[in-house]
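[agent] plan:
  1. take the single chain provided in the ticket
  2. run structure prediction with default settings
  3. attach structure tokens to the ticket
  4. add a short note for the reviewer (M.T.)
[agent] executing step 1
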Amino acid sequence: MKVVNPATVMMLHVALGGQNEETVFFVDEMRKRQVPFDVIGLSYYPKWHGTLDDLRDNMHDLIRRYDKDIIVVEYSARKEAVNKLVFELPNGRGKGSCIWEPLSTWEKFFDNNGKSNEWINVYDEVSRKYAIGHK
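[agent] step 2 finished; step 3 output follows
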């Protein structure tokens, strides 16, 4: 909490990555209730949250409306594309991504014997492209 440490970054997580109307409604309701937050976190699962274009358009609109940074804090599929969208948001407003449950989702990193697979290599490329000091 900010009372304990004013430098603490607080996230508002919205599980509607590509659904702009619903996301805006939720964020507006949280603002009406004076819920403090510094960054907006989004979940993105294509099965439930629309296309990559929907995700991109939602992130751009949220930045414009609320002047907040964005993190895709829960996703699994379309790893390269999701990271490209978030890290290429205007003015450095995309702060990163967090894969959700890399052991048992659609594109899990390890087989049932614990051996890593090709999906783990995606993050070497993401790091080369977007990590601080690698640009």
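[agent] step 4 note for reviewer: Helices lie at 20-32, 46-49, 52-66, 79-87, 122-130.
[agent] ticket updated
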